[in-house]
Design goal:
- By secondary structure, the protein is α/β, with parallel strands linked by helices.
- Helices cover about 35% and strands about 20% of the residues.
- A hairpin with a 5-residue loop joins strand 2 and strand 3.
- The two termini are about 35 Å apart.
- It has two domains: about 130 residues, Aspartate Aminotransferase, domain 1 (Alpha-Beta Complex); about 230 residues, 3-Layer(aba) Sandwich (Aspartate Aminotransferase, domain 2).
- Helix 3 runs parallel beside helix 9 and helix 10 runs parallel beside helix 12.
- The mean pLDDT is about 95.
- It has a seven-stranded mixed β-sheet, with helices on both faces.
């Protein structure tokens, strides 16, 4: 047996795309697909958004990369804008969500170290979480299917049942450094954390002198109708990891933090060769131009209500296929009664791109620029997919 040229760690669909425009992706022979996966919540502004294309093209004609040995004005500009629109006082740029998680963990441990409590290294996380694919990020997520075969699980992580407040109270001890949570679980099956629970976590962290860290890698950058999902709860974290949508398709991640949480991160404690280079931050700034533009987030909210209402009607019409609709903003999940992969494939047959998740859920993560017509078309395609599954069963 000969291994594939590309390491075979993905079960890829038998389709590839040559170009895209807005919420549409096209194969080399011109077949059109409606993209309600957005590269797993990455293409926040859709495909080939003219403002992003212009920003990337203009920067590419100037300078691509210099490394963080030197000053980078575009990086500073993006950091200042993120700070102006968030809780943060400082930002570190990296290339991915996994890298953002790694720094969040390091930052939390370093915070306690410089405050005279080096024993406080444990990070509390929650079952169903997904924080990335490095060994530390896998340990933080705690899912056995991803950990199997990679040796001992990295120490310093405590997984608790999702939503078990009593277990959380009991788990906090003298070695606890932080709580790390997705305000809306993505890979875990589109499970929003109730706003009152997020407020409770903030109070609990304050009570015990530990840090509250949010993973908004999938749910941030406008996906829930606010720039960051935690804003709905009216509280702020100490540290937050973001990626995916912030680059609009260009690899970019970031960690946002308060000055207090970041005070241990001095020169030499962390770094990245490519993180926040001129190309990446040019696109990141262009994404913020779009997402923070007048009326943009209002339209995300309007389309999210539109999508949810239509999906609820679809559930009522196909009770043998759909068990529940859940999510927040344009981060919606369909809990299936059939195998989620079956609905995903049936949707692909209808030229609709959606994505599987845990808990037998399929995710709808459309570009944030979707229109009424896009939402209607997507649900019509899902309707035909449900009918096909009903006939097959």
């Amino acid at each position: 047996m000969t291994i594939a040229p590309v390491l075979p760690t993905y079960n890829r669909a038998a389709v590839s795309f040559e170009r895209g425009v807005g919420a549409r992706a096209y194969t080399a022979d011109g077949i059109e697909y409606l993209d309600f996966g957005a590269g797993v919540a990455v293409n926040s502004c859709g495909h080939a958004h003219p403002h992003l294309v212009q920003a990337l093209s203009e920067q590419a004609a100037k300078i691509w990369h210099t490394s963080n040995i030197y000053q980078m004005p575009g990086q500073t500009k993006l950091a200042e804008r993120l700070i102006a629109h968030s809780f943060a006082d400082t930002v570190f740029f990296c290339n991915s969500g996994t890298e953002a998680t790694e720094l969040a963990i390091k930052m939390a441990r370093k915070f306690h170290y410089v405050n005279g409590a080096p024993e406080r290294v444990e990070i509390i996380t929650f079952e169903g979480a997904f924080h990335g694919r490095t060994l530390a990020a896998l340990a933080a997520g705690g899912q056995e299917k991803y950990l199997e075969g990679f040796g001992p699980k990295a120490a310093g992580f405590v997984q608790l049942p999702f939503g078990d407040h009593q277990a959380l109270e009991t788990a906090i001890g003298p070695n606890t450094a932080a709580i790390y949570i997705e305000p809306v679980q993505g890979e875990g099956g589109i499970r929003p954390v109730p706003h009152q629970c997020l407020r409770g976590l903030r109070a609990l962290c304050d009570k015990h002198g530990i840090l509250l860290m949010f993973d908004e890698i999938q749910c941030g950058i406008g996906r829930t109708g606010k720039l960051f999902a935690h804003e709905w709860a009216g509280i702020t974290p100490d540290i937050m990891a973001v990626a995916k949508g912030i680059g609009g398709g260009f690899p970019l991640g970031a960690v946002l933090a308060t000055e207090n949480a970041a005070k241990g991160m001095v020169a030499g404690t962390h770094g990245s060769t490519f993180g926040g280079n001129p190309l990446a931050t040019a696109v990141g700034n262009a994404v913020l131009d779009v997402v923070l533009g007048d009326g943009f987030l209002d339209n995300v909210l309007r389309q999210s209500i539109n999508l949810k209402q239509k999906l609820e009607r679809l559930k009522d019409q196909h009770p043998t296929i759909i068990e529940d609709i859940r999510g927040s903003g344009l981060m919606m999940g369909i809990k299936c009664k059939v195998a989620n992969i079956a609905l995903q494939k049936a949707a692909l047959d209808e030229k609709l791109l959606i994505i599987g998740a845990g808990d037998n859920v399929v995710r709808l993560l459309p570009p944030l620029i979707v229109t009424d017509a896009d939402v209607t078309e997507a649900v019509n395609k899902l309707e035909r997919a449900c009918v096909a599954l009903e006939k097959a069963n």
